[in-house]
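re the bet — no i am not wrong, look at it urself. input seq straight from the record:
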Amino acid sequence: MLTRKSLLDAVRREQVLYRAITLKDVLNSSGETFIYRAFEYVLGREPDPPGRENYLSKLASGELTKEKILLILRFSDEGKRNSDRMKWSDLLTLGLRLLKPSKSLPPSPVPLNYTTTGFGGLSDHEYADFEAHFRGSVEDVRRHLKVYTPVILDLQEQCGSMPVKGVDLGCGRGEWLELLKEYEVAIQGVDLNDTFFGRVQEKNLSVVKSDIFEYLKASKPESFDLVTAFHVIEHIPPDLRMAFLRQILRVLRKDGVCILETPNPRNLLVGCGDFYRDPTHIAPIFPDTIEFQGKIAGFSQSAAYFIQDRKLLETGKYRFDTLDHYVQVSRDFAWMGKK
């Protein structure tokens, strides 16, 4: 018989159950049960109907994993207000689970006559479409790249009446080439992708179709005032990155500058998952790592910068005092080396 006492006892048991639930319990559940437990565990409430259907659909389609849903909830505005509900060790666990390779399918044997385009198994055109989908519009990228124009103005002052001569390695769609043309910089793009090469040519910009290592090796010493490579170094195997920096140093003139931009693994969401969305990414590089490598390679100045509020902030001046700082820090960072 249902009485007031039995009803209150049932409510108390349910409250104890939710208080005792662990991250393991949440991850071991599936489907709609997982969605309910995730909301309760992170936000302390049941999901609203639109949220439940949205996450349930994306979980079923594979668009989102359980780990990503939990992180999205945690770093939502509501999740930040309830940040004490999830432990730091739970976030670390989720990050490690995202980094762990899937064991669901064994690797298939590679035929002896297998060849690759170098773009994660995608054709040149398919990879160009992939970048257009995930990187953003040409206008957005151009707007972002304007953060580096003070460096160009300094180089122009340094070069006096002579034009700044530069090369952009892995120029892609040519946004940086277009921007520097407005500043009357003698810039040449280099890209191996046929689709990118053709699109840059259509814009009447200077471009060479070549592997960037082959291009650097064929270039004479002290050929350039400026060498840039945006979102390139993460595509280079770690054991070749020092050689890449040394080749750049060789082709730079005295007081020349190199600018590299790459995804920022100090950003929790980038380092734990988003970096691996691109199938051609090999491994991230940390800001202090490339600062050290730049010094070892021989650059007289080697510094990394976070890109905050459309300004460059030295990474050493950014304070990681709270967990939220690891999410709010820029998703990309820049490294600059001077010869």
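see?? The longest strand covers residues 252-263. told u. also The beta strands are 165-169, 186-191, 207-209, 224-230, 252-263, 301-308, 311-314, 332-338. so pay up
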